[in-house]
Write a structure and sequence with these properties.
Length: 476
């Protein structure tokens, strides 16, 4: 009768565990609140416009700069940040395997030998010698235990662990995207700074020719020493602009070297030769807003975090209910090694164990409220992440168009300033204007040229920001 009751209990527990009475809310990914179309951004003729076609996962190749593409690929292969993210991902997977081990029985084996002697005044002596002499004791066996997951506590813990793995994976995707964006930004800034240095050096040559011309005019009696001093000061002022730019170039090359996990100045020879700022004038595919949640790693991570928090609520609810553990052991014990394994040396034990929380002083209720609060927090964080992503995309698109308009205006300003400088040089050579006019026009040209170079780089940088906001890149 007892055996039938025990067998029935085991079968019942197994059936309940397999059929699954899982407590807690089941997770469903929230539908992000996003517009059907991106907001309208004015695009002028000759500008790069945005189109709602699929986002290119290798968008950096659209700049048609082999150096940039090679640097991005090397950064993805070598970045220490990506190596760290991969290590964190493996750790989360290992933790998931550790948690998932609760779903299957644990089996342990043990074997041992001891030589001992008991007290003659003690209660028992398994050797039968009443503690008068030492004896050997050999033993070995197996022990098995398993918790019947009646309320889904273990299942919810594995579910939460899976979501944590997904969070780590999205963190890695986010690092991939960040490495791509940082590499592209540093490279574009490097080329922009090199172009700015070239502009300064070009103006320095003009200023030196003006100084020579002024000295000749002093000898001819049509200029004064004051004008020579002004021309010399202009040369020195322009020369002073080169050092900060050279410093910035060295720092950007080192920043790229660090992204590629290489030593300082490792890319000096490769990148020291100036090149044009990578530009992209074709239409920019930005996809649809509904695709943003599938591309942005931070949104995908927020979704996984909400999933983990939801599963943890079920774990906390299951702690209110009894736990049934099935355990058993089978082994052998003998005083002589030759007897170990014989039928008479066998030992066994089996049976279920039940633990019921009767009084916890509010601990379980507090744990449940804590998990419910974390679930609510994760839900709010998800909504904020989606809205922040929407803002980032909109701001990046506006900045991209605005920078293109600024660049076009500065191109016109440089053209007019160059024409003005040519005219004022002729007038100065003819003696119709003084050198102050030359200085003013040349400073205006230098300022406009520097602004144009900076604006050209900003157009490309803002396009990088567009793709970074769209979450493109890690998929490739």
């Amino acid at each position: 009768m007892k055996r039938s009751l025990l067998a029935g209990a085991v079968v019942c527990c197994s059936a309940l565990s397999l059929s699954g009475c899982v407590l807690g809310p089941d997770f469903t990914s929230p539908v992000p609140k996003l517009p059907e179309r991106w907001g309208p951004v004015a695009s002028e003729a000759g500008h790069s416009a945005t189109v709602e076609s699929a986002v290119d996962p290798r968008w950096w190749d659209r700049f048609a700069d082999p150096q940039l593409s090679a640097l991005v690929q090397e950064a993805l292969d070598s970045s220490f940040d990506l190596q760290l993210a991969a290590s964190w991902l493996e750790q989360s997977r290992a933790l998931r395997r550790q948690i998932a081990a609760d779903t299957v029985p644990t089996v342990e084996g043990d074997a041992g030998y001891s030589r001992s002697r008991n007290s003659q005044r003690g209660l028992t002596d398994p050797s039968g010698n009443s503690g008068k002499q030492a004896f050997n004791l050999w033993h070995g066996g197996l022990a098995i235990s398993w918790e019947a997951d009646l309320w889904g506590r273990v299942k919810r813990s594995v579910e939460a662990a899976d979501a944590s793995v997904q969070m780590a994976q999205e963190d890695r995707h986010g690092v991939q995207l960040l490495v791509i964006v940082q590499t592209a930004q540093d490279y574009i800034q490097l080329r922009g700074t090199q172009q700015a240095l070239a502009v300064v050096q070009q103006n320095l040559q003009i200023a030196r020719r003006s100084l020579e011309l002024t000295r000749l005019q002093v000898k001819e009696g049509v200029a004064t020493d004051l004008e020579v001093s002004e021309a010399a000061a202009q040369v020195s002022e322009i020369e002073a602009r080169t050092a900060p730019l050279q410093q910035r170039i060295a720092q950007l090359i080192n920043a790229l070297s660090l992204l590629l996990a290489r030593e300082p100045r490792a890319l000096q020879q490769q990148l020291s030769v100036p090149a044009d700022v990578p530009a992209y004038r074709a239409d920019v595919p930005i996809g649809l807003p509904s695709e943003l949640a599938q591309r942005r790693p931070d949104i995908r991570r927020a979704d996984a975090q909400l999933h983990a928090a939801t599963a943890s609520v079920g774990m906390a609810q299951a702690d209110f209910y009894p736990r049934i553990t099935l355990s058993g052991s089978l082994g052998f014990q003998a005083l002589q090694l030759s007897d170990l394994g014989s039928w008479g040396s066998r030992s066994f034990a089996f049976g279920p164990g039940l633990s019921v929380p009767l009084f916890e002083g509010g601990r379980l209720q507090g744990a449940l409220q804590l998990q419910e609060g974390r679930q609510q927090e994760a839900g709010i964080a998800y909504q904020k992440t989606v809205l922040s992503a929407w803002h980032e995309v909109d701001d990046a698109l506006v900045a991209y168009q605005a920078n293109q308009r600024r660049r076009d205006s500065l191109q016109q300003a440089v053209m007019h300033s160059q024409h003005a400088l040519d005219s004022v040089h002729q007038q100065y050579a003819q003696g119709t204007v003084d050198f102050l006019n030359v200085l003013t026009v040349q400073n205006t040209l230098l300022s406009n040229q520097a602004a144009l170079v900076e604006s050209t780089a900003q157009v490309s940088l803002s396009l990088v920001q567009v793709y970074g906001a769209l979450g493109g890149g890690w998929q490739g």
